[in-house]
Amino acid sequence: MEKEYGMHDIVEMKKPHPCGSRLFQITRMGADIKIRCTECDRVIMMARRDFEKRMKKIKQKNEV
Asked: Which pTM value belongs to this model?
């Protein structure tokens, strides 16, 4: 199953960030994905494969 996500989408991850939030905004896409916590604005960078395993669902699509 291919998950359709794009730049600036809000995604819910399986495990929460240490601040307690599970929601992240995608800020960079390529071989690596950069996401920003919506609660504390910390940035996390991970491989696309790891991101796809850890993402639970898309909460809000960017309508641009």
From this structure: 0.87
In this structure, the strands spanning 43-47 and 23-28 are unpaired
Q: Are strands 43-47 and 55-60 parallel, antiparallel or unpaired?
A: unpaired
Domains in the chain: boundaries: 10-60
pLDDT in tens, the chain (64 residues): 356 899 999 999 999 999 999 999 999 999 999 999 999 999 999 999 999 999 999 999 987 6
Strand order in the sheet with 55-60: 43-47, 32-37, 23-28, 10-13, 55-60
